[in-house]
Write a structure and sequence with these properties.
By secondary structure, this protein is of the alpha/beta class. It contains 15 helices and 13 strands.
Length: 370
């Protein structure tokens, strides 16, 4: 079987979807030596990562406009190579292609909270995403939350959706060397005690309420807040709260920190804060569990789903309840120990090898039996 893989997004910001794509594709061809993969990349610089795999062909399709890439350049590559199935680890599909198709749904916050999206994206979500969903012969949902919302908002039949959890990088499991701990602490001027936020900053992340809750707890407890994230969109008012709440001296913003340094950051922290309004399958929760870091997160959607009994769960719309969770993580050693212990056990259920094998099985099923 020939499987085309759409990889236009390899050059994008290194967030969750890119991490998912790279980790999955590092395992998928290795778990499926019987089939041939054609990795379609937009730029020559995006090729080379999988050059040593015999069943992978890296093909530079060329960059340019996103819509033209999806709807014109990818079908042109298909006419040349005749894929049996086209797979996109992100949203979007060519609407006129004549082979089986599968894409990955990383969540539908646009439908749950449409006010949190930019206007141009809202147009895409209204007119294009439903067409991609109808075109797909199968859709991978990264969580039960995402699977439910595919059915609820897009009317996708349940038998066309397969829930496949993502994995967690094994690098988060072993304790960092003492030298690495000292190096990262010095590099980012990290205090002795700090809460950690990891991720991009945009409306579903609920960053404004996080800051308001932190202002009630952090300075009083002597715990600073380190924000390992990048400002994305519609977050200006939230960021202004650092000044208006008078917590400038308590909030450290090193910006985006690469995955090679994150394991050490989790280990140094006093715990992760992720009280999001919406997440489908948030990798920081898996990373925190693997790193032995307690965490406060929302009692709904994908955060509650992944956290299970390991998380200190809060109502993300209630600042006082978020503050209660932070205070518990800061002062209750039994709650901290319980979160760490259960997290270590729970995270063993998530691996990239399992994700790759389940993805392989679904792609083969769609190609051969639908």
């Amino acid at each position: 079987m020939k499987v085309g893989v759409m990889l236009r997004h390899l050059g994008q910001h290194g967030g969750g979807v890119l991490g998912y794509t790279l980790n999955l594709l590092d395992h998928l061809p290795r778990s499926d030596p019987e089939n041939e993969y054609f990795f379609l990349v937009a730029e020559a610089g995006d090729a080379g990562r999988w050059a040593n795999l015999d069943n992978v062909n890296e093909i530079v399709v060329g960059g340019g406009n996103k819509l033209a890439w999806d709807q014109l350049k990818v079908p042109r590559a298909h006419r040349r190579h005749r894929f049996d199935l086209l797979f996109n680890p992100k949203y979007s599909l060519p609407l006129a292609i004549d082979c089986k198709t599968v894409f990955v749904c990383h969540g539908l916050d646009w439908y749950v909270m449409p006010w949190g999206s930019k206007l141009a994206d809202r147009i895409s979500h209204k007119y294009l995403i439903p067409r991609y969903a109808r075109k797909a012969d199968g859709i991978i949902a990264v969580s039960d939350t995402a699977a439910k919302h595919l059915q609820q908002f897009l009317g996708v039949p349940a038998d066309e959706v397969r829930r496949i959890y993502l994995g967690v990088n094994p690098a988060f499991a072993p304790p960092p060397a003492e030298g690495d701990l000292r190096r990262i602490r010095a590099k980012y001027s990290l205090p002795e005690r700090f809460f950690l936020y990891v991720g991009q900053i945009y409306p579903p992340k609920n960053f404004g309420r996080l800051l308001k809750a932190y202002a009630k707890v952090g300075p009083q407890a002597g715990i600073r807040l380190v924000v390992a994230g990048e400002h994305r969109w519609l977050c200006g008012d939230d960021l202004d709260l650092v000044r208006s709440l008078g917590i400038e001296d308590w909030v450290i913003q090193p910006g985006w920190i690469g995955h090679e340094e994150l394991p050490t950051l989790y280990r140094l922290s006093h715990g992760l804060l992720l009280p999001s309004l919406y997440e489908a399958c948030p990798s920081p929760i898996l990373e925190a569990m693997a790193s032995g870091s307690p965490f406060v997160t929302a009692n709904r959607y994908g955060t509650a789903e992944l956290a299970g009994p390991a998380g200190i769960l809060v109502n993300p719309e209630d600042v006082d309840d978020i503050a209660r969770g932070m205070r518990q993580m800061a002062t209750d050693e039994n709650a901290r120990a319980r979160s760490i212990e259960i997290g270590y056990s729970r995270v063993t259920e998530f691996s990239w090898q399992a994700c790759a094998e389940e993805t392989r099985d679904f792609l083969v099923d769609v190609a051969r039996h639908k």
